[in-house]
Specification:
With 281 residues, the chain is mainly alpha-helical. Helices cover 72% and strands 0% of the residues. It contains 14 helices and no strands. α1 runs antiparallel to α2.
């Protein structure tokens, strides 16, 4: 690699990025930096590639080494350092790094995530409201922010011991807010934010029950309506490794007969993965 030109190094990096192979990206950047020790961009590329691989400690080590050798200024890669600390659940250090960074949407989103992890839900909600206010209507960014806002509001309500009917869905009427919460939780599950999803599903279940009871629905009709929420809760519990709870919930759903046929098929499939006895009790 020592004989390779910078053009060759960057070409190798681009090829690895196109292939989605971030281990190779980090390897190429590291080797290129040995051959071209003053090329700060290669250190930055290695840091990002390591973050993509969830190798936060290694990324922090690269940042520290580059700062110490004055490869780039001390303030460089502060956001990336903050994100690494966030990944490591070292939230105070993450916030300390972010204070050095010029404010912007990316910083605010990370601050919101830190606030959520620290159970500072009011702060989290405030940040998301600020971001939503400046996000383009109809954009994917706005939709993602609304999902995260819904999760934060649900968690805040539960933390304060509030009844779920006090939950403010933000962009839906009272009649369908539990459906909005269910859809938001489904989106969170899809991107691996399982703990947030469970908070939202718990709140959706409580809100659905209280709303439908007030509207005069029968208990059986209420059970039918909330069965998809319960099915998603079982999925989330399974993903968190709470297999006993997930197993009991699947068994209850199958025994009650409240779920629609397509939901029951999904429940049966997921229950089989946990070796749930599918025979009637």
């Amino acid at each position: 690699m020592a004989s390779q030109t910078l053009e060759t190094v960057y070409s190798s990096i681009r090829d690895s990025i196109s292939a989605g192979n971030y281990a190779k990206v980090a390897e190429a950047a590291r080797a290129g930096l040995k051959a071209h020790p003053k090329e700060a961009e290669l250190a930055k590329i290695e840091v990002v590639a390591l973050i993509k691989q969830d190798s936060a400690l290694q990324a922090l080590a690269v940042i520290a080494k580059a700062r110490q050798s004055k490869l780039f200024v001390k303030e460089a890669m502060e956001y990336e350092a903050a994100y690494c600390y966030f990944m490591l659940a070292r939230y105070a250090e993450a916030k300390k790094e972010l204070k050095k960074v010029k404010t912007g949407p990316a910083n605010d989103r990370l601050l919101a995530q830190i606030a959520y992890k620290c159970n500072q839900f009011s702060e989290c909600i405030g940040i998301y409201n600020k971001l939503i206010a400046s996000a383009e209507h109809g954009s994917q960014e706005r939709k993602d922010l609304l999902v995260n806002l819904a999760a934060a509001k649900a968690a805040d309500a539960q933390a304060q011991g509030n009844k779920s009917e006090q939950y403010d869905s933000g962009e839906a009427g009272d009649a369908d807010s539990y459906e909005l919460m269910f859809n938001a939780a489904t989106g969170l599950l899809a991107v691996g934010q399982t703990e947030k999803a469970i908070d939202l599903l718990n709140a959706a279940k409580e809100l659905a029950r209280s709303t439908l009871s007030a509207d005069g629905w029968t208990e059986q009709d209420i059970q039918d309506e909330i069965s998809p929420i319960e099915a998603q809760r079982a999925v989330a519990l399974h993903q968190l490794g709470c297999n006993a709870e997930a197993r009991d919930l699947y068994r209850d759903l199958l025994s009650s007969g409240s779920a629609e046929s397509n939901t029951r098929d999904t429940i049966r499939h997921n229950a089989a993965l946990l070796s749930v006895d599918l025979k009637p009790r």
